[in-house]
Amino acid sequence: MNIAVFSCSLNPKSKSRRLAERALARLGGSGADALFIDLAKYSLPPCDGGSAYGDPAAIELKETVKNASAALLAFPVYNYAAGSALKNMMELTGDAWTGKTVGMVCAAGGKGSYMAPMTVANSLMLDFRCVIVPRFVYAIGEDFEGDGAPSEEIGQRVDELADELLRIGTALSG
Ligand SMILES: Cc1cc2nc3c(=O)[nH]c(=O)nc-3n(C[C@H](O)[C@H](O)[C@H](O)COP(=O)(O)O)c2cc1C
Q1: What are phi and psi of 83, to 5 degrees?
Q2: What pLDDT shows up at residue 18?
Q3: Whose CA is nearest to atom 27 of ligand 1?
Q4: Distance from the CA of 115 to the center of ligand 1, in angstroms?
Q5: At 59, is the pLDDT very low, low, confident or very high (cuts 50, 70, 90)?
Q6: Cα 30 to middle of ligand 1, angstroms
Q7: Is 114 exposed, middle or buried (0-12, 13-18, 19+ CB in 10 A)?
Q8: Which residues contact 32 (CB under 8 A, 6 or more apart)?
Q9: Are strands 33-38 and 2-7 parallel, antiparallel or unpaired?
Q10: Which of 9, 79, 145 to mutate to test the pocket of ligand 1 (most atoms within 8 A of CB)?
């Protein structure tokens, strides 16, 4: 089972990256072939619906998405929605997402933006027939320890999500 774990925060002290790392460890420990993609390490152009598709980093990411059976998206909540780095990546990689199983984890400043993952889910379901794992992890500041590690409770929820992603993704990939 080939799973791409995307860390979509550009902040060097990102909390959602810590969630992505936890999921990566769980998936790897469960025998999945899990690949970590940190968008902070890419300099992707803003999607312009044209020449940006020819950018080498955009082409590389599109191949990565195509080759994965499933993906875990970890992202920051900005302005009550997923941060634009994730949306830009989705715009650049487009139909490579077709039919993937997708799980989501996110980090937010407060509790009020808990619907933020739904815009990502809607787009992936309606545009690309993705199957969205029907649970996500929404973590806020108090869910992280002083060193930035996720609390035990949030860590366990990330593990449960990773297990579900693997279970559903494996079933659907036949
Ligand atoms: C531009 C910006 C917008 C934000 N908007 C929200 C928001 O609408 N709701 C919220 O709960 N937190 C918001 N936050 C707080 C972030 O979600 C929080 O810092 C989170 O840890 C970001 O994820 P990251 O640490 O992985 O980068 C915002 C932060 C920034 C920088």
Answers
A1: -60, 155
A2: 98
A3: 14
A4: 14
A5: very high
A6: 31
A7: middle
A8: 1, 2, 3, 166
A9: parallel
A10: 79
Ligand 1 centre to CA of 145 (Å) is: 17
Q: How confident is the model at residue 98 (pLDDT cuts 50, 70, 90)?
A: very high
**Token pair 């925060």: residue:** 9
pLDDT the model gives residue 91: 98
Minimum-distance ligand 1 atom for the alpha carbon of 75: 26
Measure the CA–CA gap between 26 and 51, rounded to whole angstroms.
Answer: 38
Question: 2-172, what's its fold?
Answer: Rossmann fold (3.40.50)
Pocket of ligand 1, beta carbon within 6 A: 9, 11, 14-17, 76-80, 107-110, 113
pLDDT of 130-158, one tens digit each? 999 999 999 999 999 999 999 999 999 99
Mean pLDDT (whole number) for 88-106: 98
Q: How many CB atoms lie within 10 A of CB 99?
A: 12
Q: For ligand 1, what atom is nearest to the CA of residue 140? A: 21
Region 108-118: mean pLDDT is 97
